[in-house]
């Protein structure tokens, strides 16, 4: 009897993991991580039944090589706590044969991940013939139509107009500025430091002490990433 099991994880540098290592492990292969110079060798690992990379139409063809795919991910993520990939571990019906499970998994991955724009790297494991399961590794940064990475988050400037504060991205601010919205900067006001607009500060003769405008703490999340990261989407999967 088939038993449902699906586990979701995030592969993050902050937890000491790498996408290259995760891919090498599940595909039982040897892969070199350009980011940290570490080679991960899992060629002696047993139980690999099948492995494949599935890409959306806009992804570069060379990413069919999983080592190139995940090194591209590692390269574009710059911070020490970057989220590199999303990982699912899914139980497969023991009643189905190998080809049926492969077809079932390919269909699931295409409909739920690749058609949404993610690159998917997956492998089927079964060490004893009674526990077929799949490891699915997914990119977390959306792609542009030309195959380049989109942003995960974009800086959001907190601007002022008539006493109201509102957030704008750099592209949005071009229009907002024409409507009278102003960025805020830190100025020295007596012994205090306050955020003011340039027009107000110039009237009072305050000295600006920081070149960076006021912005939201985490920025504006890419709407595609926001959907992928939502609890609602996780429940759908």
Automatic annotation (TrEMBL):
Q: MobA/MobL protein domain location, by residue? A: 17-211
**Protein known as:** MobA/MobL family protein
Protein keywords: Conjugation
* Keyword Nucleotidyltransferase recorded: no
Instruction: State the InterPro entries in the record.
Output: MobA_MobL
Annotated family:
Belongs to the MobA/MobL family.
